[in-house]
Write a structure and sequence with these properties.
By secondary structure, this protein is α/β, with parallel strands linked by helices. Helix content is 36%, strand content 15%. The strands form 3 sheets. Strands 1-11-10-9-8-7-6 form a 7-stranded parallel beta sheet.
Length: 382
């Protein structure tokens, strides 16, 4: 593979990579048992060994991603144990709480060990995203992204816990205002540190097209349509006013935990408004047509933004056929111009520390497939 990225970028790593055992072992010397985020118990500990191991492993996977041929790389999210904690590790006001249910295609369920409960007023006390960006800037000239939870994550009903969060915030809207303000600070710091691509992960929209999730909201007296309005407003406002040379992406994730998923359903009911948000790149999970629907919602894509087709699974070891992946890209071209498309895995490989059920060799083969499929459709890098 050539080491020069395509311009525009057509092949991406989404975010997390499988964490090496030595990195997890170093993390366990800092994080309390069961914790996936940094709470008061972790903040005063000696992080030097974990940071040393993370530095070494990030340098390794940066080179390996470039060698695989993708156009946008990440640090593997190796400085965190959970994809959302670029925010949570920087903020006081969270405590540990119950997790959520994830499923696989065999119908098996597993509960995430830990959730993050807003139990105090949110207050930024660290600059985690800036450190991630600064280190990446220091080790590579290659295009890279840094990632945050989507602003609409905090519009989800589960983020405002009755009996807990309402003791410190008068309303869900007030909580959302604080979270957006802090995210914008973190984004500006990352830009100042050299980041030029910010990706937001796991926005609320897949929950709003999942029949079970909508029914659960309604049973609890929550109006899903009102939640949609809150989500769209948050995801719009969080990116307003930043420099034009910064790329903003949003990853429409349906859940990714040890090869399990959370939400099913086609995006069509929300696609027109979702794709009208002011993002440059929309990464959408489309690896499972039966569960996620076909590409029909692409008909709502306006001119300009790029949709990154997440059609290679990061959940299973089996390697897809390159011919099949190229054929699926050509299916999408029937709805939108090829210039407005790119390709990736459907999600990262390790949204939480344990990672998905495949090997690191499998992971690299998947990323090499992302690049080779892009070669076939858009030409080689360089």
């Amino acid at each position: 593979m050539s080491s020069a990225p395509r311009q525009p970028q057509r092949a991406e790593a989404i975010g997390s990579l499988l964490r090496p055992k030595r990195l997890i072992a170093a993390a366990r010397t800092v994080y309390e048992p069961g914790h996936l985020a940094v709470y008061d118990e972790e903040r005063g500990k000696d992080w030097s060994e974990l940071n040393r191991v993370a530095d070494e492993e990030i340098r390794r996977v940066v080179k390996r991603q470039i060698d695989a041929g993708v156009d946008v790389i990440t640090d593997g999210e190796f400085r965190r144990l959970h994809f959302i904690t670029s925010f949570h590790n920087a903020v006081a006001g969270f405590s540990s709480g119950p997790g959520r249910i994830f499923r696989n295609d065999a119908g098996q369920e597993v509960r995430v060990a830990e959730g993050h409960v807003v139990s105090g007023r949110l207050r930024k006390i660290d600059s985690t995203l800036a450190r991630e960006a600064s280190f990446m800037k220091s080790v590579t000239d290659f295009p890279f992204k840094v990632t945050l939870p989507a602003a609409s994550w905090f519009a989800a009903p589960h983020t405002f816990r009755q009996g807990i969060t309402d003791q410190v915030y008068s309303s869900h809207e007030e909580l959302l205002e604080d979270s957006i303000a802090i995210q914008r600070e973190l984004i500006q710091e990352a830009i100042d540190a050299g980041a030029r691509y910010i990706q937001f992960d796991f926005p609320l929209y897949p929950a709003l097209v999942d029949a079970d999730a909508r029914a659960d909201m309604e049973r609890r007296g929550i109006d899903p349509d009102a939640v949609l309005e809150m989500a769209l407003d948050a995801d719009r406002r969080v990116v307003e006013g930043f420099p034009e040379d910064v790329t903003f992406g949003i990853h429409i994730c349906r859940g990714n935990f040890r090869s399990r998923w959370t939400y099913a359903g086609a995006l069509d009911p929300v696609a027109e408004r979702l794709l009208d948000l002011p993002y440059d790149r929309f990464s959408i999970e489309w690896d499972d047509v039966e569960r996620e629907g076909d590409f029909a919602s692409l008909r709502f894509l306006p001119k300009g933004p790029v949709v990154i087709l997440g059609i290679i699974s990061s959940k299973v070891a089996a390697l897809e056929s390159e011919d099949d992946i190229v054929a699926r890209i050509h299916e999408a071209v029937k709805l939108v111009p090829v210039e407005q498309l790119a390709v990736s895995t459907q999600c990262g490989f390790a949204s939480v520390a344990d990672g998905n059920e495949l090997s690191e060799d499998d992971q690299w083969r998947k990323l090499e497939l992302v690049a080779s499929a892009a070669d076939r459709v858009w030409g080689s890098s360089g």
